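Thread: quick sanity check before group meeting

JM: Hey all, I'm pulling together slides for Thursday and realized we never actually wrote out the predicted structure for the chain we discussed last week. Dropping the sequence here so it's in one place. If anyone has concerns about the input, flag it before I start.
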Amino acid sequence: MADRDAATLTWRRLWAETSEQLRDRQHARWMCEVASGFDGAEFIEALDDAPTQRMVAHLDTMLARRLGGEPLQYVLGRWQFRALDLMVDRRVLIPRPETEWVAEIAIGIARSIAPPRRIVDLGTGSGALGLSMAAELPIASSEIWLTDVSPDAIDVARANLAGLGRAGAFVRVVQGSWFDALPAELRGTIDLVVSNPPYVADDDPELEADVAAWEPASALFGGHDGLDHVRAIVGDAGRWLRPGGAIVFEIGADQAVAVEALLNAHGFRHVEIADDLTGRPRVASARTPEA
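JM (edit): ok, ran it. Output follows.
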Protein backbone atom coordinates (compact mmCIF):
# COMPACT_ATOMS: atom_id res chain seq x y z
CA MET A 1 0.00 0.00 0.00
CA ALA A 2 2.48 2.58 -1.15
CA ASP A 3 2.09 6.28 -1.96
CA ARG A 4 -0.35 7.00 0.82
CA ASP A 5 -1.18 10.53 1.92
CA ALA A 6 -0.79 10.32 5.71
CA ALA A 7 -3.01 13.37 6.15
CA THR A 8 -6.03 11.58 4.68
CA LEU A 9 -5.30 8.07 5.91
CA THR A 10 -8.18 6.58 7.87
CA TRP A 11 -9.35 3.10 8.77
CA ARG A 12 -12.12 3.52 6.21
CA ARG A 13 -9.53 4.00 3.48
CA LEU A 14 -7.31 1.18 4.75
CA TRP A 15 -10.27 -1.18 4.87
CA ALA A 16 -11.12 -0.31 1.26
CA GLU A 17 -7.51 -0.74 0.09
CA THR A 18 -7.12 -4.04 1.94
CA SER A 19 -10.43 -5.29 0.52
CA GLU A 20 -9.25 -4.53 -2.99
CA GLN A 21 -5.99 -6.40 -2.44
CA LEU A 22 -7.62 -9.45 -0.88
CA ARG A 23 -10.82 -9.33 -2.94
CA ASP A 24 -12.64 -10.13 0.29
CA ARG A 25 -14.19 -7.34 2.33
CA GLN A 26 -14.88 -9.45 5.43
CA HIS A 27 -11.36 -10.82 5.65
CA ALA A 28 -10.02 -7.30 5.16
CA ARG A 29 -12.17 -6.07 8.01
CA TRP A 30 -10.89 -8.75 10.36
CA MET A 31 -7.30 -7.82 9.53
CA CYS A 32 -8.02 -4.13 10.07
CA GLU A 33 -9.67 -4.92 13.39
CA VAL A 34 -6.61 -6.83 14.58
CA ALA A 35 -4.26 -4.05 13.44
CA SER A 36 -6.37 -1.31 15.01
CA GLY A 37 -7.18 -3.13 18.26
CA PHE A 38 -10.89 -2.44 17.74
CA ASP A 39 -13.54 -5.14 17.32
CA GLY A 40 -17.08 -5.07 16.02
CA ALA A 41 -18.99 -1.86 16.62
CA GLU A 42 -15.89 -0.15 18.03
CA PHE A 43 -14.14 -0.59 14.69
CA ILE A 44 -17.08 0.93 12.78
CA GLU A 45 -17.05 3.91 15.14
CA ALA A 46 -13.32 4.36 14.46
CA LEU A 47 -13.52 4.25 10.64
CA ASP A 48 -12.68 7.94 10.26
CA ASP A 49 -9.88 7.84 12.83
CA ALA A 50 -6.26 8.03 11.70
CA PRO A 51 -4.14 4.92 12.36
CA THR A 52 -0.69 5.11 13.88
CA GLN A 53 2.39 4.17 11.87
CA ARG A 54 2.73 1.00 13.94
CA MET A 55 -0.86 -0.01 13.15
CA VAL A 56 -0.30 0.55 9.43
CA ALA A 57 2.92 -1.47 9.54
CA HIS A 58 1.10 -4.30 11.32
CA LEU A 59 -1.64 -4.32 8.69
CA ASP A 60 0.90 -4.26 5.85
CA THR A 61 2.72 -7.24 7.37
CA MET A 62 -0.50 -9.22 7.73
CA LEU A 63 -1.52 -8.39 4.16
CA ALA A 64 1.84 -9.57 2.80
CA ARG A 65 1.57 -12.81 4.73
CA ARG A 66 -1.96 -13.46 3.48
CA LEU A 67 -1.08 -12.67 -0.12
CA GLY A 68 1.85 -15.06 0.28
CA GLY A 69 -0.59 -17.88 0.94
CA GLU A 70 -0.53 -18.10 4.73
CA PRO A 71 -3.95 -19.11 6.14
CA LEU A 72 -6.05 -16.22 7.36
CA GLN A 73 -6.35 -17.70 10.86
CA TYR A 74 -2.59 -17.70 11.35
CA VAL A 75 -2.29 -14.20 9.91
CA LEU A 76 -4.88 -12.92 12.37
CA GLY A 77 -3.34 -14.92 15.22
CA ARG A 78 -6.80 -15.77 16.51
CA TRP A 79 -9.93 -17.65 15.52
CA GLN A 80 -13.41 -18.18 16.88
CA PHE A 81 -14.34 -21.64 18.17
CA ARG A 82 -17.82 -21.83 19.63
CA ALA A 83 -17.82 -19.27 22.47
CA LEU A 84 -14.03 -18.92 22.55
CA ASP A 85 -11.67 -16.51 20.80
CA LEU A 86 -8.57 -18.69 20.56
CA MET A 87 -5.00 -17.71 19.89
CA VAL A 88 -3.75 -19.82 16.95
CA ASP A 89 -0.53 -19.97 14.99
CA ARG A 90 1.50 -22.52 13.03
CA ARG A 91 2.20 -24.54 16.19
CA VAL A 92 -1.37 -25.87 16.21
CA LEU A 93 -4.16 -26.88 13.84
CA ILE A 94 -6.69 -24.29 12.78
CA PRO A 95 -9.97 -24.95 14.66
CA ARG A 96 -12.67 -26.08 12.23
CA PRO A 97 -16.47 -26.34 12.23
CA GLU A 98 -16.45 -30.16 12.28
CA THR A 99 -14.49 -30.05 15.53
CA GLU A 100 -17.16 -27.77 16.98
CA TRP A 101 -19.57 -30.66 16.44
CA VAL A 102 -17.23 -32.94 18.42
CA ALA A 103 -17.44 -30.40 21.25
CA GLU A 104 -21.23 -30.27 20.95
CA ILE A 105 -21.59 -34.03 21.35
CA ALA A 106 -18.99 -34.23 24.13
CA ILE A 107 -20.60 -31.40 26.10
CA GLY A 108 -23.98 -33.10 25.79
CA ILE A 109 -22.53 -36.34 27.17
CA ALA A 110 -20.75 -34.45 29.97
CA ARG A 111 -24.00 -32.82 31.03
CA SER A 112 -25.54 -36.28 31.43
CA ILE A 113 -22.83 -37.20 33.95
CA ALA A 114 -23.38 -36.11 37.53
CA PRO A 115 -20.65 -33.76 38.79
CA PRO A 116 -17.92 -33.74 39.74
CA ARG A 117 -16.76 -35.04 36.36
CA ARG A 118 -13.26 -35.91 35.24
CA ILE A 119 -12.67 -35.08 31.56
CA VAL A 120 -9.53 -35.49 29.43
CA ASP A 121 -8.83 -33.78 26.09
CA LEU A 122 -6.12 -35.84 24.40
CA GLY A 123 -3.93 -34.04 21.85
CA THR A 124 -5.48 -30.71 22.75
CA GLY A 125 -3.55 -28.46 20.33
CA SER A 126 -4.93 -24.97 20.86
CA GLY A 127 -7.13 -26.27 23.67
CA ALA A 128 -10.31 -25.84 21.62
CA LEU A 129 -12.18 -28.93 22.84
CA GLY A 130 -11.20 -29.00 26.49
CA LEU A 131 -11.45 -25.25 27.00
CA SER A 132 -14.88 -25.17 25.34
CA MET A 133 -16.03 -27.75 27.86
CA ALA A 134 -14.57 -25.70 30.71
CA ALA A 135 -16.29 -22.57 29.40
CA GLU A 136 -19.69 -24.13 28.73
CA LEU A 137 -20.11 -26.51 31.66
CA PRO A 138 -20.92 -25.03 35.09
CA ILE A 139 -17.86 -23.67 36.87
CA ALA A 140 -16.30 -26.11 39.34
CA SER A 141 -18.40 -29.01 38.02
CA SER A 142 -15.55 -30.67 36.11
CA GLU A 143 -11.86 -31.44 36.45
CA ILE A 144 -10.44 -31.13 32.94
CA TRP A 145 -7.04 -32.31 31.75
CA LEU A 146 -5.49 -31.14 28.47
CA THR A 147 -2.63 -33.21 27.04
CA ASP A 148 -0.37 -32.86 24.02
CA VAL A 149 2.95 -34.40 23.04
CA SER A 150 4.09 -31.13 21.42
CA PRO A 151 5.64 -28.57 23.79
CA ASP A 152 4.74 -25.86 21.28
CA ALA A 153 1.07 -26.87 21.35
CA ILE A 154 1.19 -26.97 25.16
CA ASP A 155 2.39 -23.36 25.16
CA VAL A 156 -0.53 -22.31 22.94
CA ALA A 157 -3.05 -24.22 25.07
CA ARG A 158 -1.71 -22.59 28.23
CA ALA A 159 -1.98 -19.15 26.66
CA ASN A 160 -5.60 -19.83 25.75
CA LEU A 161 -6.28 -21.21 29.22
CA ALA A 162 -4.97 -17.96 30.72
CA GLY A 163 -7.69 -16.09 28.82
CA LEU A 164 -10.47 -18.27 30.21
CA GLY A 165 -10.66 -16.61 33.61
CA ARG A 166 -12.55 -18.33 36.43
CA ALA A 167 -13.77 -21.06 34.10
CA GLY A 168 -10.20 -22.29 33.78
CA ALA A 169 -9.56 -22.80 37.48
CA PHE A 170 -10.09 -26.56 37.27
CA VAL A 171 -8.16 -27.14 34.04
CA ARG A 172 -4.75 -28.81 34.05
CA VAL A 173 -2.34 -28.84 31.07
CA VAL A 174 0.25 -31.62 30.83
CA GLN A 175 2.71 -32.69 28.16
CA GLY A 176 3.01 -36.25 26.92
CA SER A 177 1.81 -38.78 24.37
CA TRP A 178 -1.89 -39.51 24.76
CA PHE A 179 -2.67 -41.19 28.12
CA ASP A 180 1.03 -41.34 29.08
CA ALA A 181 0.80 -37.64 29.94
CA LEU A 182 -1.62 -38.30 32.80
CA PRO A 183 -0.82 -39.14 36.42
CA ALA A 184 -1.12 -42.90 37.03
CA GLU A 185 -3.71 -42.34 39.77
CA LEU A 186 -6.25 -41.22 37.15
CA ARG A 187 -6.33 -44.70 35.63
CA GLY A 188 -9.86 -46.10 35.75
CA THR A 189 -11.40 -42.84 37.01
CA ILE A 190 -12.01 -40.76 33.88
CA ASP A 191 -15.64 -40.02 32.97
CA LEU A 192 -15.07 -38.70 29.47
CA VAL A 193 -12.24 -38.67 26.94
CA VAL A 194 -12.49 -36.29 23.99
CA SER A 195 -9.98 -35.90 21.16
CA ASN A 196 -9.29 -34.57 17.70
CA PRO A 197 -6.39 -36.91 16.87
CA PRO A 198 -4.34 -36.93 13.66
CA TYR A 199 -6.41 -39.01 11.21
CA VAL A 200 -5.29 -38.01 7.70
CA ALA A 201 -3.67 -40.82 5.70
CA ASP A 202 -0.04 -40.10 4.88
CA ASP A 203 -0.69 -40.07 1.12
CA ASP A 204 -4.21 -38.64 1.14
CA PRO A 205 -4.67 -37.03 -2.31
CA GLU A 206 -7.65 -34.99 -1.10
CA LEU A 207 -5.73 -33.05 1.55
CA GLU A 208 -5.78 -29.37 0.61
CA ALA A 209 -2.39 -28.05 -0.44
CA ASP A 210 -2.43 -25.07 1.93
CA VAL A 211 -3.26 -27.35 4.88
CA ALA A 212 -0.29 -29.61 4.08
CA ALA A 213 1.97 -26.60 3.57
CA TRP A 214 1.12 -24.62 6.68
CA GLU A 215 -0.39 -26.77 9.44
CA PRO A 216 1.72 -29.03 11.71
CA ALA A 217 2.18 -32.45 10.12
CA SER A 218 2.33 -34.17 13.52
CA ALA A 219 -1.27 -33.04 14.18
CA LEU A 220 -2.52 -34.11 10.74
CA PHE A 221 -1.12 -37.46 9.67
CA GLY A 222 -1.96 -40.86 11.12
CA GLY A 223 -0.14 -43.45 9.06
CA HIS A 224 -1.02 -45.30 5.87
CA ASP A 225 -4.76 -45.37 6.66
CA GLY A 226 -4.86 -42.39 9.02
CA LEU A 227 -5.81 -44.52 12.03
CA ASP A 228 -2.49 -45.17 13.82
CA HIS A 229 -3.23 -42.66 16.58
CA VAL A 230 -6.89 -43.61 16.78
CA ARG A 231 -5.84 -47.22 17.39
CA ALA A 232 -3.46 -46.11 20.14
CA ILE A 233 -6.14 -44.04 21.89
CA VAL A 234 -8.89 -46.65 21.62
CA GLY A 235 -6.50 -49.41 22.68
CA ASP A 236 -5.65 -47.65 25.97
CA ALA A 237 -8.93 -45.87 26.70
CA GLY A 238 -10.60 -48.84 28.39
CA ARG A 239 -7.90 -48.86 31.08
CA TRP A 240 -8.31 -45.17 31.85
CA LEU A 241 -12.06 -44.69 31.63
CA ARG A 242 -14.26 -45.68 34.55
CA PRO A 243 -16.91 -48.34 33.94
CA GLY A 244 -19.55 -46.70 31.76
CA GLY A 245 -17.15 -43.90 30.83
CA ALA A 246 -17.40 -42.31 27.38
CA ILE A 247 -15.04 -41.49 24.55
CA VAL A 248 -15.74 -38.97 21.76
CA PHE A 249 -13.35 -38.21 18.91
CA GLU A 250 -13.18 -36.80 15.41
CA ILE A 251 -12.59 -39.07 12.40
CA GLY A 252 -12.21 -38.78 8.66
CA ALA A 253 -15.36 -38.94 6.58
CA ASP A 254 -14.28 -42.29 5.05
CA GLN A 255 -13.26 -43.96 8.33
CA ALA A 256 -16.63 -44.70 9.94
CA VAL A 257 -16.73 -48.43 9.20
CA ALA A 258 -13.15 -49.05 10.32
CA VAL A 259 -13.54 -46.98 13.50
CA GLU A 260 -16.81 -48.66 14.46
CA ALA A 261 -15.17 -52.07 14.04
CA LEU A 262 -12.17 -50.93 16.11
CA LEU A 263 -14.35 -49.75 19.00
CA ASN A 264 -16.37 -52.94 18.99
CA ALA A 265 -13.21 -55.05 18.91
CA HIS A 266 -11.99 -53.32 22.08
CA GLY A 267 -15.20 -54.06 23.95
CA PHE A 268 -16.86 -50.65 23.78
CA ARG A 269 -20.63 -50.43 23.91
CA HIS A 270 -23.17 -47.97 22.48
CA VAL A 271 -20.90 -47.23 19.52
CA GLU A 272 -22.22 -44.37 17.40
CA ILE A 273 -20.87 -42.47 14.40
CA ALA A 274 -22.52 -39.05 14.08
CA ASP A 275 -22.66 -36.86 11.01
CA ASP A 276 -21.38 -33.31 11.05
CA LEU A 277 -23.49 -30.40 9.86
CA THR A 278 -22.64 -31.20 6.23
CA GLY A 279 -23.96 -34.76 6.57
CA ARG A 280 -20.57 -36.50 6.63
CA PRO A 281 -19.77 -39.12 9.33
CA ARG A 282 -17.19 -37.28 11.47
CA VAL A 283 -17.72 -37.96 15.19
CA ALA A 284 -17.28 -41.34 16.89
CA SER A 285 -18.57 -41.98 20.40
CA ALA A 286 -18.79 -45.05 22.61
CA ARG A 287 -18.85 -46.17 26.24
CA THR A 288 -17.00 -48.77 28.26
CA PRO A 289 -19.13 -51.57 29.75
CA GLU A 290 -20.73 -50.86 33.09
CA ALA A 291 -19.18 -52.66 36.07
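AS: nice. The CA atoms of residues 34 and 273 lie 38 Å apart. The domain at 90-287 is CATH 3.40.50.150 (Rossmann fold).
JM: adding both to the slides.
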